[in-house]
Amino acid sequence: MSISDCATIRWNGEEVADAIRKHETETREWTFQPAAERLTRLYDQMNELFFGKTLPKAIIAIGPDLITRYGCYRLGRDEIGAKHRIRLNARHFGRSESDVAITLLHEQIHLFQNEFGHVGHRPRYHNKEFVGLAAVRGIEAQIGNGVTKSVSQRLRQVLAEFGFSHARPMIADSDDRAISKPLRKVAWHCGCGQEAWVERGLALHAVCVKCLRPFARPEFRPESQALHRESAAIPTNAEGLYTGTRHRSIQRDVTFQSSTTPGAPTLAPHNNTA
Questions:
Q1: 186-209 burial, b if ≥16 CB within 10 A, otherwise e?
Q2: Last residue of one domain, picked from the residues 65, 85, 118
Q3: Cα–Cα–Cα angle for 136, 140, 143, nearest 5°?
Q4: Tens digit of pLDDT for each residue in 6-54?
Q5: Residue that is last in its domain, among 69, 84, 118
Q6: Full pLDDT tens readout for the chain, 274 residues
Q7: Is 106 helix (H, G, I), strand (E, B) or coil?
Q8: Is residue 168 part of a domain?
């Protein structure tokens, strides 16, 4: 089914989502009950405005999470069998109501893409399709790590109309720490547009087998990296030519011939998780 066909989908959800939503919004002894009630209502409002009410009802989970994460959408069923769950990190509820709402919209776009589009995979989980879906809704996101680079004034106005201010924190007196979330792998490019993904902090010394030009990343400054990982996996042939293909991560389980500079750390291939 194409994304253009999604308008014909009726908005619905599983009974477990209805039950948990009801529980979250009515549990008075829970610290996050007021926020959960507002964010659940906002989910439905943004579903109607930005997605034509095509998204299934989702559970909005709120609680502490990794400090490097504002929120996440879980693919597939969770520990209790619920299918659609968005988790918002309460450790960042010192941010403005509007910023938390933008995180919720970001995760709704993931849900939409999971239902009607083509979900990206690490290290390009936030692929071009995701970036395009975010752009038409007022969010400029970065390919790869999904960092929000800017938000349209119109989106801020819409959120303000829904009661989510850019001046008030989501929860008063809540601490917040800025996220420093570097990519674990960064893209190097050759002259014909091929990509090679390399561990951050390591230099790639290889040329493309197609255009015979070296891979480059002009902003790469190894001396500025405080932490160097232990491996660099570079697929090359006997002549030192890069033999990977476009959009292929270089941590696959194949035999590698290192072409790093003498004395530079070398690493074994590894699995990229989370």
A1: bbbebeeebbbbbbebbbbbbbbb
A2: 118
A3: 110
A4: 433 334 557 888 889 999 888 888 999 999 999 999 999 999 999 999 9
A5: 118
A6: 444 444 333 345 578 888 899 998 888 889 999 999 999 999 999 999 999 999 999 999 999 988 888 999 988 888 888 888 999 999 999 999 999 999 999 999 999 999 998 888 766 779 999 999 999 999 999 888 888 999 999 999 999 999 999 999 999 877 666 665 555 677 888 888 787 878 777 888 888 888 888 988 756 444 333 333 333 333 444 444 444 433 333 333 323 333 333 333 333 333 333 3
A7: helix
A8: no
Tokens standing for 199?
A: 């561990």
With respect to residue 81, please indicate whether it lies within any of the assigned structural domains: yes
CA 6, distance to chain mean position in Å, is 22
Q: Which domain holds residue 92?
A: 3-118
Q: How far apart are CA 106 and CA 131, in angstroms?
A: 10
Global pTM reads 0.62
Locate 149 and state its tokens.
């680079």
Q: How far is residue 98's CA from residue 84's CA, in Å, rounded to a whole number?
A: 23
User: Could you tell me the CATH number of the domain that includes residue 38?
Assistant: 3.30.2010
DSSP 8-state class, residue 222: G
Give the C-alpha separation, 66 to 180, whole Å: 12
Q: How many domains does the chain have?
A: 2
Measured in degrees and rounded to the nearest 5, phi and psi for residue 156 equal -60, -40
Q: Which amino acid is at 66?
A: L
**How many CB atoms neighbour CB 247 within 10 A?**
14
In a domain, 160, yes or no: no
Six token digits for residue 46: 């943004």
CA-to-CA separations, 1 to 76, 116, 127, in angstroms, rounded? 18, 7, 19
